[in-house]
Amino acid sequence: MMSNDPVTMVAALLAVMGVAMVIWLLIAAGLRECAASCLCLAGANALQALALVVRWLPESQWRTPGLIADVLLLGAFAMLHLSVPLMDDKPTRWPLLASALALLAALLTQLPTGPHHAAHHLVVNGAGGLFCFFAARNTVRLLRDRELRPALSRIFGLPFLVIGGLLLVRPLATLWMPDVPASLDTRGAFNIAWLWAALVMTLTVNGTLAFLLMLKLVLQIRRLTLRDPLTDALNRRAMAEAMAAEHQRVRRGHTYAVVLLDMDRFKQLNDTLGHAAGDEALKTLVEVLRPCLREVDLLGRLGGEEFCALLPYTGVAGAALVAERMRQLLETTDFRWQGRSWPLSASFGITESAPSDEDPTEVLRRADEALYRAKAQGRNLVQAVEAIDQPAQPPRPQSASGQGDPVAS
Questions:
Q1: How far is residue 155's CA from residue 145's CA, in Å, rounded to a whole number?
Q2: Is the same domain home to 298 and 162?
């Protein structure tokens, strides 16, 4: 049975906000990465609850309770707005937001307060609604960055829009319809409907933010299963899955190329400078190679010092250009470890897929054969092995290392 007592409804709101605050504090204590966002959400619920309590205090000649309640409410919605970018580990504009809150508080001190002064409530509710609209925008952007469908992204941003709408409806309703009670503790159909909507939306917003937090954690776990923890390149399993998916397009006429590379004299580097230097050299290699790749290309670590680049819609000629650019960039990299300089280089083997390849392992076998040739002919070279049923390719770019032709079939 629905309650028609506004005091009971406000008590229910206070209970929901109190429970949400405790839950977010517990989550913040257990999750270091999302602690700032969870603390913001706990603070938002606490400030909203405190604003409701303060609003019930008797007004003095200085109008202190009402003004404090309004400032607390603005702070609550500002923290709600900040929680979404913090959850996505994005920088926040604390100074700008604090300045805006200070200006709003100063403006409120100059406006007459009370339940029937619409200008005061339009400033408070309008600013709070604006914070909610920003939170809705940030939520949609966060979910789109996580490759969620646009329609679903908008659905999860909807609760913030509804909260913002509720904030704007109340002062506008009291302005346009004088019979609507402006105070929350007044009985009336509008008040009860508004409080029920506020209760449902408070639950929904906290649930939406809990979903965003869960989604972030799930994606982080998924990333750990697909990424090499040292270099952040794809791991062997992820590369195998990507190549299998790309190989399905070969029979539809789409070619892909593979660049297999192995760092030269890596064991000597480890023995001379230590394994920590070797780890740093591998991370440096990935940082150097990534700018050579397009958005559709993938780079993975197959194990040890061996890496693989998957180049969709690319033949041997294109792969040769990419591999040679990688080779040159790596060769000119100034790698230093504890004051000591060490030359970095790698050997490259390239090939492209062919319709006769039954699976990606045949493509990798040819790339591995080309890599073996590069190692045997002096290292720091690019070598290619073409599929039997592929037409001859145009001449490859020449090496800048002075060690001969960088690409040979």
A1: 15
A2: no
